[in-house]
Structures are given as structure tokens and as C-alpha cells.
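Structure in, sequence out. Go:
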């Protein structure tokens, strides 16, 4: 087969979310699939390379709306068997059989909290892209249920392929000097808990996390810092204001973007990942934490229970007291924390990018 791939996300400097998925999936496909030809499309030079003989790059010099106005011309001569789109941007005009990835339906679930451009994208995804696709890949059973319920899509057209994490990167690190150096880099002084929200969005529920942390600190039940990673997002000003109002400036660290090399070291040296998100299409930070030896506290809703299984503490994300009690339980019982840490390492082994790639390849081949 000859497969065209919408790969614009690999032209971004600091990839998160969709970029992490796209890069790791294509990299894994390049290892297990030598017979099919992949042509990666973007309108800007690629920064993150795949580097396999059957993967090529093609840059389309078209500044805006190239997915809809320029990309279709690549399909006029029917030289492709398949179009793979890791983000719901399906061309209106000419295209081969198409596989689209859907991560979540946040634009519907939190419609009052996203930008106008975000609303337009989700309208396009729900009203057109998901219905136009020949097959939809959902990254969790939770996302599949949302697509069926909110978009009225035939369940037979939706295939679930859970995510993986980079096993070479997310693992146990035992070099004390390296761990100390990374902690010093971000101003971390001693024991800490961490939240890796990537972007400081409303749905990441950080204000409730900070209030739960404050409850623990005010009761004197913990002596830890709270480290929150991620670039500035819509909730950033609210978060900074809350930290100041609670006099937690010395206790809460906002690191900004963390390099992929530093993230597993921070996770592995944290006493817990506290990730009480209101909704996740999958919850990759949970998997990355478990693979790094970091015990997990997360929400009891959407896809998060699928990922953590029995290897973490599940909480009601709308209850600050419940989040605080989970933090206290995790940090006050070393034996319990170590048990969850070991369970998390085992749970993480159930997920891999190789498995994701193999299941994705099956979707491609079944569309021939």
C-alpha cells in the first residue's frame, strides 16, 4: 500500500499530545512495517524525523488551510491507497480511503471553555471529519463511547487502539547525581508530588488540586512541594492568583515546559503523580508516571480508570477533600506507596507503542 500521512505536528518544536502520539506511532510502524510506503505531509519542514527507507517527506508550500485547499490535489491521480490523519482535518474534496484518529471530544464536553477556533475545529470534526472517515481510531474505550453517544457514529467504524509510552525513556533511573541535577534545575528542594498537565487547561482541574494540597499543608500532614509542569494555558492566571492567595509561592512550583529527557527523571523521583483531571481521552501522563516508578492518584471518570487499573488511587475530581485524603494516604504510608509503585510498573507493561502500531496497521490493511 501507499499511505499518505497528515504529519504537520512533526513540524512543531515542542511536541505534546497529538505530536507525541504521531511521532511514536510512526516510529513504531517504521520498525514493524517494511512493505508499505508512507509519505508524510506538512506545509513546513519536519523537525521530528522518522528516518526509515519506506518513509518519505513531502512539504507543500501553502501557508494556511493547506489541509483543505492544497492537500486534495495530491490525490487527483489516485496514487495513494490510504490517507491517515492523526488529527481530525479531513479534506473536503478528493481523497483516498481515510483513517482518522479521535483522542477526545473536549470541544463538546467543555464547549464553554474553548476558543472560537477550537469550537470551529470541533464542529468540523464532529459534523464532518468523523462522519466522512472510513474508519475512526479511538485511543480508549471511553473515547469510543463518547463518539457513539455524541456523534451518532456506527460502533463498527470505530477501532480502539490504546496508547503506549517510550520504554527507552520512561523507565527507572537510579543515578542520584542525575536526579539531583534535574531537581535543582527546576528549584525542587526536597520531597515533592507532581502534576504533568502539559498545558494549564481548565479541564486539568489544577485549582482543586492546589486547594487539596493546601488542605494537606494547613493540617501539617505533608511536608512536600507540589510541582506542576506545562506551558501557559487558559487557566494560568487563575492558578497563579490562587497560589498567591493561599501563600503557597514557596510550595508550588510552575516549571513551564519540561523537556522529554527530564520528564521521566522528575516522575521517578516524585512521591506521587496527582492527576485529578476532569476528563481525559486516554491519560498518557498516568502511563508515563507508572512506567517511571511513580505511584498515581487520578480521577475515577472517563478513560483514567482504564489506564491505571488497580494500580492507583481513584478519586472524585470535583472533591477537594477526597483529593487531599488520597494525597495524605499516599504520602503517610510508605509500604502502601511502594505497593502501588510496583503495581504501576506492572500495569504499564500492558501498554506499548509497538502494540499500538500493530493494531493500527491492522486497521490500514483491513481497508485495502
Amino acid at each position: 500500500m501507499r499511505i499518505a500521512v497528515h504529519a504537520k505536528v512533526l513540524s512543531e518544536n515542542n511536541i505534546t499530545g497529538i505530536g507525541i502520539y504521531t511521532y511514536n506511532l510512526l516510529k513504531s510502524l517504521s520498525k514493524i512495517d517494511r512493505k508499505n510506503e508512507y509519505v508524510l505531509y506538512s506545509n513546513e519542514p519536519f523537525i521530528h524525523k522518522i528516518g526509515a527507507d519506506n518513509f518519505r517527506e513531502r512539504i507543500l508550500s501553502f501557508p494556511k488551510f493547506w489541509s483543505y485547499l492544497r492537500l486534495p490535489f495530491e490525490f487527483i491521480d489516485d496514487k495513494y491507497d490510504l490517507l491517515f490523519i492523526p488529527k481530525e482535518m479531513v479534506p473536503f474534496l478528493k481523497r483516498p480511503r481515510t483513517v482518522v484518529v479521535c483522542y477526545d471530544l473536549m470541544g463538546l464536553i467543555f464547549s464553554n471553555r474553548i476558543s472560537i477556533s477550537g469550537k470551529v475545529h470541533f464542529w468540523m470534526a464532529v459534523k464532518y471529519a468523523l462522519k466522512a472517515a472510513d474508519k475512526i481510531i479511538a485511543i480508549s474505550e471511553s473515547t469510543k463511547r463518547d463518539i457513539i453517544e455524541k456523534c451518532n457514529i456506527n460502533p463498527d467504524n470505530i477501532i480502539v487502539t490504546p496508547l503506549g509510552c517510550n520504554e527507552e525513556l520512561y523507565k527507572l533511573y537510579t543515578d542520584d547525581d542525575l536526579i539531583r541535577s534535574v531537581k535543582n534545575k527546576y528549584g525542587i528542594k526536597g520531597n515533592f508530588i507532581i502534576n504533568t498537565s502539559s498545558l494549564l487547561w481548565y479541564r486539568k482541574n489544577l485549582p482543586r488540586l492546589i486547594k487539596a494540597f493546601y488542605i494537606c499543608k494547613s493540617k501539617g500532614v505533608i511536608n512536600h512541594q507540589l510541582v506542576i509542569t506545562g506551558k501557559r494555558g487558559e487557566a494560568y492566571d487563575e492558578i497563579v492568583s490562587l497560589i498567591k492567595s493561599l501563600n503557597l509561592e514557596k510550595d508550588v512550583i510552575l516549571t513551564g515546559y519540561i523537556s522529554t529527557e527530564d520528564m521521566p527523571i522528575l516522575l521517578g523521583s516524585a512521591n506521587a503523580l496527582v492527576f485529578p483531571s476532569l476528563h481525559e481521552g486516554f491519560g498518557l501522563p498516568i502511563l508515563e508516571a507508572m512506567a517511571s516508578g511513580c505511584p498515581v492518584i487520578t480521577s475515577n471518570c472517563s478513560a483514567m480508570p482504564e489506564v491505571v487499573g488497580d494500580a492507583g488511587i481513584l478519586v472524585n475530581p470535583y472533591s477537594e477533600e477526597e483529593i487531599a485524603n488520597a494525597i495524605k494516604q499516599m504520602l503517610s504510608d510508605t509500604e502502601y506507596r511502594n505497593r502501588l509503585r510496583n503495581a504501576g510498573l506492572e500495569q504499564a507493561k500492558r501498554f506499548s507503542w509497538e502494540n499500538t502500531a500493530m493494531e493500527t496497521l491492522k486497521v490500514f490493511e483491513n481497508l485495502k
